[in-house]
Design a protein that fits this description.
heterotrimer; A mainly alpha (181); B mainly alpha (426); C alpha/beta (323); A: mainly alpha; C: 323 residues; alpha/beta; five-stranded mixed β-sheet; 11 strands; 46% helix; globular; binds sodium ion; transmembrane (chain A); membrane (chain A); TRAP_DctQ (chain A)
């Protein structure tokens, strides 16, 4: 059961990462077009810095859950290395629960930003006058997704702990490496 | 407050809670215990404004650029070519690590991205040729830090953004100190390996004909550098836009080489999002901690400490350098810059120090922070690519390079022209 | 009462010379020690200038100050406070701001839950150009770095192209021809060395005056006694607003002296040519404002803001938006 849920979550986050990657490539294409048009003296598409800011916000919210599942968020293992298996598992669970709590709080605190924007019909203070609920909605949904993913991971990890599956626990919330081999 | 935060930071990190989360936790703690105001209500707004930033988009773009070079085989061929040219030196392949880092620094704006790229291609060679792991991995961690000194540089972009200093001027200023650092790394490596040959690997000589043939392998990186930096100085692109141009150029280079398969493209995109999200969590957390600490009076505490010290301008400079070295042990570098620059740079500028020069000095200190334990992102990246042994090997390996950086700080103070000559000449 | 105050840009004279002095020294003096303040600035806190009033409304701090133009994404009607080119000197600008003050007070209450304490000006936002530019008409076809939505619209109406780049990138961009002109305060342009890479100065306030609205969280303000409220507002008027406006008056002449290398500015190496505002330019500007820019704003702001503007600011400056 836990394995299935975790597997589905991994697949979903891989898809999210891929979509974000494609968004980055589209941003590159947009910037290149803008630079080329300007270079040829054909004016400018305008708004490339505004749009890349929105893409950045999406990467910095939707990408977080993927990084968590890949164990990519930096953790210091100086003390953890000195411990035995049980100690390590305890630290991993503690780190995960603290992370989960903080992320839930953040997602909760991000909502009023979108709420105010919707209430006031706020638009970006730029020539594009982008209705801000669109980029902020995407960004807020990313934090919600991170909170949801973190909660699922915590529950799965707890179930591994109770079942005594230490290897699976380590593979889920242990310390991974920052880069792929 | 500063000390409580520093000690809590250490404690929470030792518990192996993710660094970005620790920064948020500390921000929440400061908001609750050091401020009478509901600072948490500003949290969402802080997170939105700091992440919806067109300046920071350069981070994922540079990481993507590096990923494309690795998956397209460009990184590996560059490394092999530099090996042919430098392995005759005492220390052998270690010099190729430094030289490859230097070349990639010229195309990447991030030290983490540079170290990750070089470590990925170099580490397998260390095992094959039976190198001492300490100096070998230390050279990658230290060489990787050049990524933010040799232009382009995300940290210089952030510095320019926070202090309203011209980014192209900063980029020019970083070039000579960056190359000097690289040279000093090579010299120190050679000296160490003359005294203790066991620390390096076998010196290997290659035929000149072979070396000449390998020169072609360096062309892609040279072309990439020319396009990225050239587009900024030709007035075609802003520094951020140049990162996008670099990505496109890297894709073209990869396409002319081995090409990128579907699988490689997916891996490159996933790798980019993984590393960028990891970095962004730390940066956004650092922004929030900065917001909470400033609201609670950090600015006053720091200005009192520095302004109230009654020191001469030179004494103040020494105090600031000492402060950065100590903070650099513990605090993630972008977080460190965001938290301190708005307070410290105006003080230094008020004392008559040039903002461009101070930016370069600061970058050397930040490079040092990247490789000093307990919090040194480059140490973790290299250890992550090694996947064996203890991180202590890497920490032992970077020690000589930390001393080189300290010498560079002294050199910049004695000869400000090292940084300021190029910007004034253009 | 100790107030937590977030001031404007920490690198500009308004903060360094007026806000710092007022909140740290003058406020306790003017209120007989009954009120003190803890001052920081939005840039030091890492807050975007556009977010100051949002956070102020949430009670994250007691008093906040930012350029009103930065926050028009949340309140487009606030653009009416700073219409470019209609006030050419500080006295006119002050009259315009005073006429708009009741409107601004309502907007700050409704949109941000904040009480206006005062409005202080930045210096007039003038135009630095590389190449011969003698009048507004010469801006046609030029690439101009401006800020603020109304300024951008005005530039478009003049046939110029508005370009968005950071302040710190302006000198390099002027030098390399990425832009032809850039708008900022004369003093900022002087201290940032823009005169090294540009040669003509249009002293028209094409970017307006960037008024900074100093406001207090409404709950916090309402909780003060009537006596304290009066004490605070008159202290701000006397200790912050008045000196800032006074400096704005004399400031422009000094800064222009420096930019032209006049002997009255010691140590200046600059030698820019000044193109003063001509009657033709002003007539043209008013024409465009009435025909395009202001009606455009009226539809963006909605409601009866155009009518209110006509009755107040419009009457003071002699302009009427057709509805
Ligand atoms: Na670089
Ligand atoms: Na460190």
């Amino acid at each position: 059961m836990a394995d299935h849920i975790l597997g589905a979550l991994r697949r979903a986050n891989r898809a999210v990462a891929l979509i974000l990657g494609v968004a980055l490539i589209l941003t590159v294409a947009f910037i290149l077009t803008d630079v080329a048009l300007r270079g040829l003296g054909l004016g400018s598409l305008g708004g490339s810095d505004e749009l890349s800011g929105y893409v950045m916000a999406a990467v910095a919210s939707w990408g977080l859950a993927f990084a968590l599942l890949e164990r990519a968020h930096v953790r210091i293992d100086v003390m953890r290395l000195k411990l035995r298996d049980t100690g390590r598992a305890a630290m991993d669970i503690l780190a995960m629960i603290v992370t989960n709590g903080v992320v839930l709080l953040i997602a909760f605190q991000c909502w009023p930003v979108l709420q105010k924007t919707i209430e006031r019909g706020s638009r970006a203070n730029t020539p594009l006058e982008t209705p801000l609920w669109i980029p902020q909605g995407i960004w807020f949904a990313g934090w919600l997704w991170f909170a949801l993913s973190a909660t699922i991971i915590t529950l799965v990890a707890l179930s591994y702990l109770l079942a005594g599956r230490r290897d699976a626990l380590d593979a889920t919330i242990g310390i991974g490496s920052e880069v792929e081999p | 407050m500063i000390w409580t935060v520093a000690i809590s930071l250490l404690g929470l990190m030792a518990l192996s809670i993710p660094v970005g989360i620790v920064l948020f936790l500390l921000g929440i703690g400061v908001a609750q215990f050091y401020s009478a105001f509901p600072l948490l209500r500003g949290m969402g707004q802080m997170i939105w404004s700091s992440s919806a930033s067109s300046t920071l988009i350069a981070i994922p773009l540079f990481v993507l650029l590096g990923e494309i070079l690795v998956r397209g085989g460009v990184a590996e061929r560059t490394y092999a070519a530099l090996d042919k040219w430098l392995s005759w030196l005492p220390g052998g392949l270690v010099h190729a690590n430094i030289a490859t880092s230097t070349m990639f620094s010229a195309t990447s704006g991030s030290s983490v991205a540079t170290a990750a790229t070089v470590a990925t291609v170099a580490m397998p060679q260390a095992e094959r040729l039976n190198y001492d792991p300490r100096l070998f991995s230390g050279a990658i961690a230290a060489g990787g830090t050049l990524g933010i000194m040799i232009p382009p540089s995300i940290n210089l972009i952030v510095y320019g953004f926070l202090t309203e200093t011209s980014i192209p001027q900063l980029f020019l200023a970083g070039l000579i100190p960056g190359l000097l650092l690289a040279l000093a790394f090579v010299v120190v490596t050679a000296l160490i390996c003359i005294v203790r040959p066991a620390l390096g690997g076998p010196s290997r000589s290659f035929e000149w004909s072979e070396r000449m043939r390998s020169l072609g392998q360096l062309l892609p990186i040279v072309a990439l550098f020319t396009v990225v930096i050239g587009s900024i100085y030709a007035g075609w692109a802003t520094p951020t836009e140049s990162a996008a141009i670099g990505v496109a150029m890297a894709a073209v280079i990869a396409a002319f080489g081995d090409g990128l398969g579907r699988r490689a493209i997916i891996e490159a995109l996933e790798g980019t999002i993984r590393i960028s999200a990891m970095i962004m969590l730390v940066i956004v957390g650092a922004y929030f901690l900065n917001f909470a600490m400033t609201s609670a009076g950090l600015g006053r505490q720091l200005s009192d400490l520095i302004g109230g010290s009654g020191l001469s301008p030179f004494g103040t400079l020494m105090l600031v350098i000492a402060l950065y070295i100590v903070l650099g042990f513990f605090i993630e570098t972008l977080a460190l810059m965001v938290a301190t620059i708005p307070i410290i740079v105006p003080i230094m500028a008020g004392l008559g120090y040039d903002k461009v020069w101070f930016g370069i000095l600061l970058i050397v200190l930040v490079e040092m922070a990247l490789i000093t334990p307990p919090v040194g992102l480059n140490l973790f990246v290299v250890q992550g690519a090694r996947k064996r042994g203890s991180i202590n090997d890497v920490i032992m390996g970077v020690i000589p390079y930390v001393f080189v950086m300290a010498l560079m700080v002294a050199a910049l103070i004695a000869l400000p022209g090292l940084a300021l000559w190029l910007p004034s000449a253009f | 009462e100790e107030l937590s105050v977030v001031g404007s840009w920490s690198n500009l004279p308004l903060y360094q010379q007026f806000e710092t002095v007022f909140w740290n020294e003058r406020l306790p003096e003017l209120t007989d020690g009954q009120m003190t303040a803890q001052l920081t600035s939005f840039d030091q806190m890492g807050i975007a200038g556009a977010d100051v009033y949002r956070m102020l409304g949430d009670g994250v701090f007691d008093v906040g100050a930012t350029v009103a133009d930065y926050t028009v994404g949340d309140a487009p009607e606030l653009e009416g406070l700073d219409v470019p080119l209609i006030a050419t000197d500080a006295a006119e600008a002050q009259a315009m701001v005073e006429a708009a003050r009741p409107m601004v007070e309502d907007i700050m209450r409704d949109r941000f839950g904040a009480q206006v304490l005062g409005i202080a000006p930045y210096p007039p936002q003038v135009v630095f150009c590389r190449g011969d530019v003698a009048s507004l008409a010469d801006l046609q076809g030029k690439k101009v770095r401006g800020s603020g939505r109304m300024t951008t619209k005005l530039l478009e109406a003049l046939g110029a192209e508005g370009i968005n780049i950071a302040f710190s990138e302006v000198p390099g961009s002027l030098e390399r021809g990425v832009i032809d002109c850039a708008v900022t305060g004369a003093g900022s342009g002087y201290s940032a060395g823009w005169w090294e890479v540009s040669d003509h100065l249009l002293t028209l306030p094409l970017g307006g005056w960037d008024p900074v609205v100093i406001a207090m969280n409404a709950d916090r303000y309402d909780a003060l006694t009537a006596e304290q409220q009066t004490m605070l507002t008159s202290a701000v008027a006397e200790g912050l607003e008045a000196p800032a406006w006074q400096a704005a008056q004399g400031g422009l002449e000094n800064d222009i002296a420096c930019l032209t290398g006049d002997a009255s500015c010691e140590g200046s190496r600059a030698s820019m040519t000044v193109a003063p505002a001509s009657e033709d330019d002003m007539a043209r500007a008013r024409e465009i404002l009435v025909a395009e820019v202001l009606p455009d704003w009226a539809s963006r702001a909605g409601g009866d803001w155009a009518a209110r503007w006509n009755e107040t600011v419009g009457q003071t400056v002699g302009l009427t938006i057709d509805r």
